[in-house]
């Protein structure tokens, strides 16, 4: 008998089930089965499907269904900081510096943290990626020859990709092999000083365009698209026509060719209203070495610090809070594009640490620590300096360094983190308020405020932690707070990234 490929159960007469064969020869007689035989077949089918996967019947008991299992890749150059609790803030009064005891018990979850500050070499990878993306766009542009090979216009199935995406597997030709149009595109990202005739990468063109979906704002009840879900109090009458005003950041190029970053306010219409877009100049401000120190000869640092290979492993400086966030967004996108589609969006994004995360990591989770090391001061038992800071008035070199030092020049703390005090102060994601941790929750504390361009400058303060090479010992303490404005670029402020761990740590056995 020909195998029946598809069957559907139809109810017959007098309790008899009929199996109707789809695609059987015309006029073939239908097969009739008794009800007991049908039950037997059904039992065999249940056993078969149960052997292929977990049965939904399971004896009528609630057993749960597991989500797909996958392994989170360990991030390169990062240390896993395990969840814990500690007393955040100063635990003792310090009359000399006017510090009052203001500690607060808090807890933070697992997160990965860069073991060192982001270095010049690492940040240069970001800058060169932006440079190369601009060159590839121009090589594709008809104004520079219009080579279609530098963009992918169709997917593997031949479907059009709109808009086309850059083909990073195709190398940019060297200047020796490039034709005239290609050479023009390659050289277009460089700038020559008309006075000194020095040629270097044009900082003004290093613009990174990215978008970030604000899941926190989208999750707030007041911002829900369905009016019925904004208020759960049944005594309150819901207005289905209520207009919810939201603010979002957007960026574009105006008619004059200038980049505009602005915050707009409009009525909530869709989830797209929570997508913030930025166009950020990501090149470090090399002139910070001159502008931060009046009447000092720091021109060599301005010329060499970011680009000379001798400074490759030194912490990048001259980077604003806004630029540091752009780096985090690029690093996230750079990683996700290297992963399979199945797990790409399950990886948590790279970001700046919260103030609480930074202090917890710096103090190795110990409430009685005021520095990353065990000692109560910056000098060890053998009279060795434990970090890069300013040991005395006018004395920067006693610790072996004048300005910044190569990352990991000093011993790490108990968590395996280097330079959590001194070397460079570091940006956090937390907005600065004098009240600080007092207004924050005690679970994963954070205070975020995304200041609009039109906001007063005082609202654009971000918390900076750790102190730097130019600070005395007091200001590199792990319980001391400081701030800087989010658009400032300083020769003594850098950053490192964190990433929330997706995996889980097993609880202690009782």
Give a verbal description of the structure.
- The chain is an alpha+beta fold and 510 residues long.
- Helices cover 18% and strands 20% of the residues.
- It has nine helices and 20 strands.
- It has helices at 35-52, 120-140, 180-187, 215-219, 288-291, 299-304, 321-336, 341-344, 355-362, and strands spanning 6-11, 17-22, 31-33, 78-81, 84-88, 104-108, 111-114, 151-154, 160-166, 190-192, 199-201, 207-213, 245-253, 259-267, 275-281, 425-431, 461-465, 482-485, 493-494, 498-500.
- The protein has a four-stranded mixed β-sheet.
- β10 (190-192) and β11 form a beta hairpin.
- α2 (120-140) packs antiparallel against α3.
- The longest helix is centred in the first third of the chain and has 21 residues, at 120-140.
How many individual helices?
9
Strand tally, please?
A: 20
Helicity level, as a percent range? 10-25%
Query: Could you describe the largest sheet, including whether it forms a barrel?
Result: 4 strands, mixed
Categorize the overall geometry.
globular
Spans of at least 5 consecutive residues whose pLDDT stays below 50 are 1-51
Strand line-up across the major sheet: 18-17-16-19
Q: What would you report as the Rg, rounded to the nearest angstrom?
A: 30 Å
Structural class: alpha+beta
Instruction: Please provide the ordered H/E string of secondary-structure elements.
Output: EEEHEEEEHEEHEEEHEEEHHHHHEEEEE
The average pLDDT is 87
Q: Percent of residues in beta strands?
A: 15-25%
Report how far apart the termini are: 63 Å
């Amino acid at each position: 008998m020909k195998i029946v490929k598809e069957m559907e159960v139809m109810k017959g007469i007098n309790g008899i089930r009929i199996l109707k064969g789809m695609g059987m020869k015309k006029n073939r007689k239908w097969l009739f089965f008794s009800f007991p035989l049908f039950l037997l077949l059904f039992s065999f089918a249940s056993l078969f499907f149960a052997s292929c996967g977990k049965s939904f019947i399971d004896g009528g008991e609630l057993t749960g269904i597991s989500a797909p299992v996958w392994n989170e890749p360990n991030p390169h150059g990062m240390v896993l900081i395990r969840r814990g609790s500690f007393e955040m803030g100063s635990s003792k009064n310090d009359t000399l510096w006017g510090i009052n005891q203001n500690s607060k018990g808090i807890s933070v979850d697992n997160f990965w943290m860069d073991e060192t500050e982001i270095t010049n070499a690492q940040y240069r990878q970001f800058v060169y990626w932006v440079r190369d993306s601009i060159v590839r766009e121009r090589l594709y542009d008809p104004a520079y020859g219009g080579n279609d090979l530098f963009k992918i216009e169709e997917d593997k199935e031949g479907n059009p990709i709109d808009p086309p995406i850059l083909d990073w597997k195709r190398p940019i030709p060297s200047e020796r092999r490039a034709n005239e149009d290609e050479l023009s595109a390659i050289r277009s990202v460089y700038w020559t000083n008309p006075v000194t005739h020095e040629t270097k990468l044009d900082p003004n063109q290093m613009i990174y365009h990215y978008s970030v979906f604000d899941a926190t704002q989208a999750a707030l009840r007041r911002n829900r698209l369905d009016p019925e879900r904004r208020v759960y109090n049944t005594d309150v009458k819901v207005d289905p026509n209520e207009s919810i005003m939201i603010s979002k950041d957007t960026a574009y190029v105006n008619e004059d060719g200038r980049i505009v970053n602005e915050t707009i306010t409009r009525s909530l219409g869709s989830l797209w209203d929570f997508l913030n877009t930025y166009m950020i100049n990501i090149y470090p401000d090399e002139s910070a070495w001159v502008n931060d120190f009046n009447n000092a000869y720091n021109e060599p640092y301005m010329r060499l610090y970011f680009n000379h290979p001798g400074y490759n492993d030194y912490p990048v400086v001259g980077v604003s809070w806004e630029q540091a966030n752009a780096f985090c967004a690029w690093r996230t996108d750079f990683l996700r594009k290297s992963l399979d589609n199945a797990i790409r969006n399950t990886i948590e994004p790279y970001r700046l640490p919260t103030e609480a995360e930074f202090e917890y990591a710096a103090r190795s989770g110990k409430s009685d620590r005021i520095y990353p090391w065990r000692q109560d001061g910056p000098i060890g038992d053998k009279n060795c300096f434990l970090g890069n800071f300013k040991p005395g008035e006018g004395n920067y070199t006693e610790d072996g360094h004048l300005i910044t030092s190569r990352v990991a020049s000093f011993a790490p703390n108990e968590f395996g983190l280097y330079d959590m005090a001194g070397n460079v102060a570091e940006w956090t994601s937390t907005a600065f308020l004098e009240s600080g941790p007092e207004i924050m929750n005690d679970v994963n504390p954070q205070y975020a405020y995304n200041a609009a361009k039109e906001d007063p400058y005082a609202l654009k303060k971000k918390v900076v932690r750790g102190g730097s090479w130019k600070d005395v010992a007091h200001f590199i303490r792990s319980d001391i707070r400081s701030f800087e404005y989010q658009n400032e670029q300083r020769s003594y402020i850098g950053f490192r990234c964190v990433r929330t761990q997706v995996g889980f740590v097993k609880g202690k056995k009782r």
